[in-house]
Structure prediction request, 375 residues.
Amino acid sequence: MFDLPSLRLGRLFGIPLEVNLSWLIIFGLLSFSLAFGVFPGAVDGLSVAAYLGLAAVTALMFFVSIVLHELAHSLVARAGGVHVDRITLFMLGGVSQMDEEPHTAGREFVMAFAGPAMSFVLGIASFVLAAIAQFAGAPAYVVFPLSYLGSVNILVGIFNLLPGFPLDGGRVLRAILWGITHDLNRATLWAARTGQFIGWSMVALTVAGVAVGGAEAVPLIWFGLIGWFIASLAGQAYRQQIVKQQLSHVRVGSVMTPHPQTAPGDITLEQLAHDYFLGGRHSRYPVMFDGHVIGLITLPDVKAVPRERWPFVRVAEVTERDLQRMTVDSSASLDVTVDRLGSDRPGALLVVEAGRLIGIVTRADVIAASRRVPV
Ligand SMILES: [Zn+2]
Prediction:
């Protein structure tokens, strides 16, 4: 279900915004239930087409609110030096994808709280607008959707503050426990456990509701689905944390591939494709220039250049050069490294010792190392 492709809509403050196609399902369901279930009871005398149009606009405004909620998390994260990959809307809400955890408890607290705070602000603003509209004598089809947006935003804020990971409230709880105990691992384990409890409780409530309420309770299924999703993410976070704890005792230098084959920066992409990607067995190469490593080149980097230009473009020109993001010290522990390898790019880190390239570590190396860890 979540393997559906995502469409990139653009950037907000430089952060890519994507919509997963699964989102269309919830957009359709919400519009449908607003048009036929909610609005006819509150706004009189519109045509079916008008109810549908009003419902679609309201549902869209709701998802804009969700994007703003995620944007609040992302901007606070970025201000704290955490790289935000993208914001994605999908069937069960929105998510800000980051490739590392916040560095301090205080920062995590502010970052986690920023989203619900934004939802509360949006909720109150919608209620104020609804009140102004009503005072000015605006019709019900303006006032009611505004107050509806007010309620759902407040609900989103409250729901997200439930104290279980991966909900925002779980992150707030983790930040508090982290601050008190100075033990991030233990704080994460606790927050993940309460997350599992909250998620499974939602599933249980849904099952009970459907058993008692029959067809009336069918909309609850979505709530149960979110519960199941929370429980599975929390369970995953719990297991990951256990593995991470073990990996904190393993050094990058002991799992890397030493003496990696490098590619010269002054050859053309044509030569690189032919001699390295076709002839070799690796999917990425550290690039050397003037005796120094300057970055990493991958097959997608090469493919991003039109085929007919390959004989004229030098490797160094398209090499990903953000060395700070791409290198790791051989003495670093694997639990830190696993976060940095989590995002799609670069998918591998250059291992350096005293500034000299001594190896390369890929996600596959870390996964292999974590498989050796007893859970
Ligand atoms: Zn949030």
